Amino acid sequence: MNTHVDVLKDANYRLSPSATDAIEQWQAANPDRVPVHTQKWDVADPAIYAEDRWQPIFAEMRATAPINKVTGTPIGEYWNVTTLKPIQHIEALPLIFSSDMRNGGFVLTNMDNSVIDPTAGTNFLGMDPPNHTSRRRTVAPAFTPAEMMRLTELVRERTANVLDELPVGEQFDWVERVSIDLTTAMLTTLFDFPWAYRHYLPFWSDWMSDSRFGEDPELGQMRLDAMMEMADCFGKLWEQRRNAPETPDLLSRMIHSEAMSEQDPMEFMSNMALLIVGGNDTTRNTMTGIVEALDRFPDERAKLEADPSLIPNAVQECIRYVTPVAHMRRTAMQDYEIDGQLIKAGDKVALWYISANRDETIFTDPDRLIVDRENARRHVSFGYGVHRCVGARLAELQLRVLIEEMLKRRMRVHVTGTVTRLRQNFIHGFSKAEVTIEKA
What count of Cα atoms within 13 Å lies in the side-chain half-sphere of residue 115? Predict the structure, then answer.
């Protein structure tokens, strides 16, 4: 499948410790230095997602103060935007509500975003138009409907192979055996990445996506080390392909594009991190969320078994229900009033997709998975406006094929053991889900 293995043959990249293990070990050893979130509506607290208790907090905000400002938190003061229409309104104004890394970026962290080094690398998600526009145009052709048609049989073959190897009647970790395996295989295709080194991709992705790395300089250095390994690896591949003819993979598209061919090392490293995280974490966590939700709502699984034509809509509903990216952060570039609240220039604004997808004014009975929900596509899990996820079609393809192949095998997945959720406020998902398969 791939001819680029030799260029990495002398690489000595490491696969441990994982981001989760390293951060949790540091927190256990330094409990007095772990940020303490005490404000009622400080939903930047990673614990509420790990403990799966975020739902009533956001429901209270939506009912009483859908746009509100919290102060005195470990990350300073910021605005919560919790309902769907205001989030879409703000997303439609990218020059007023900035994503640019020089203005603070797109993630809430406990770092002082006001002192971000303006010379540090950024990626096209951390850019505003027009810089964002040209770079997105370079990447977008990899996710056209035609490309999805080209990839469909490969996705189906890989999914079938993974499912056919799963034990029936024996407990195993769905995250490890299915979600990570399938998304890692897809990343290797997107980048034409050497198959023998594929396991580095989810390792690097976890380090890139965990927003808690700023809790300690040592953790920050470990994250930087992982990023430098990733940059070294992709830098070797970049140099190897620079003089080769352009091919459909993302790395080749970037190399041969006017907008991205001359990236400086920091921007290159940041863009690779974005594409790896975007291609891995979101789909991976929805793949786990699907089986957890269908087990929680067996009547909805029965609907799919009775009528497979519901699968495309069910994919949208699962993405809404899971919401694998909990929030995006913006920074106000000028004073702006919305729904009677004055957001001032310089204010941090958190757009809580995870809450908007439970907005009772949009979705009836939003805390339930309803596979035939008529307006499931109104979810904002992929964002909205110029920053809407460029790889949305690929995520939908992978999830649709997974459900189709599970139904084809009359496979019912039951949660029978430990479910461990990610302790972070950006990527919403799972680090473990112990399940057992029965055949219908």
Answer: 3
Are the CB atoms for 132 and 278 separated by under 8 Å? no
Instruction: Report the half-sphere exposure of 418 (CA within 13 A, side-chain side).
Output: 6
Q: Is residue 1 part of a domain?
A: no
Q: Which two tokens stand for residue 74?
A: 């470990």
Model confidence at 8, pLDDT cuts 50, 70, 90, reads confident
Burial 417-439 (b: 16+ CB within 10 A, else e): eebebbbbbbbbbbbebbbbbee
Residue 405 has pLDDT above 80, yes or no: yes
DSSP single-letter state for residue 141 = G
Please provide residue 70's backbone torsions phi and psi, each rounded to the nearest 5 degrees: -110, 145
Question: Taking a C-beta distance cutoff of 8 angstroms, is the pair 409, 298 a contact?
Answer: no
> Residue 335 belongs to what domain range?
6-439
Distance CA 165, CA 379 (A): 33
User: Alpha-carbon distance 34 to 273, whole Å?
Assistant: 26
pLDDT in tens, 117-175: 433 457 888 899 998 998 888 888 889 999 999 999 999 999 999 999 999 999 999 99
Beta bridge partners of 156: none
For residue 273, give the CATH number of its domain.
Answer: 1.10.630.10
Q: Who wins on pLDDT, 360 or 203?
A: 360
Compute the 3-state secondary structure of the chain and give helix, strand, coil in percent, each to the nearest 5.
50, 15, 35
Number of domains in the chain: 1
**Distance in angstroms (rounded) separating the CA atoms of residues 60 and 65:** 8
Q: Among 83-92, 203-212, 343-352, 387-396, where is mean pLDDT lowest?
A: 203-212
- Average pLDDT of the chain, as a whole number: 90
Q: Is the bond preceding residue 324 a cis peptide, omega within 30 degrees?
A: no
Q: Is residue 117 part of a domain?
A: yes
Long-range contact pairs involving 195-201 (C-beta distance under 8 Å, separation at least 24): 195/1, 195/2, 195/5, 196/5, 197/5, 197/8, 197/11, 197/13, 197/233, 199/15, 200/13, 200/15, 200/229, 200/230, 200/233, 201/276, 201/280
Q: Within a domain: residue 377? A: yes
Unique residue bearing structure tokens 């399938």: 182
Q: Is the pLDDT of residue 98 over 60?
A: yes
307-316 b/e (C-beta count within 10 Å ≥ 16 → b): eeebbebbbb
427, 285 contact by CB (below 8 A) = yes
Task: With beta carbons less than 8 A apart as the criterion, state whether 120 and 100 touch.
Answer: no
Whole-angstrom CA distances from 184 to 198, 210, 219, 257 are 7, 18, 25, 25
Measured CA distances, 227 to 135, 235, 386 (Å): 21, 12, 27
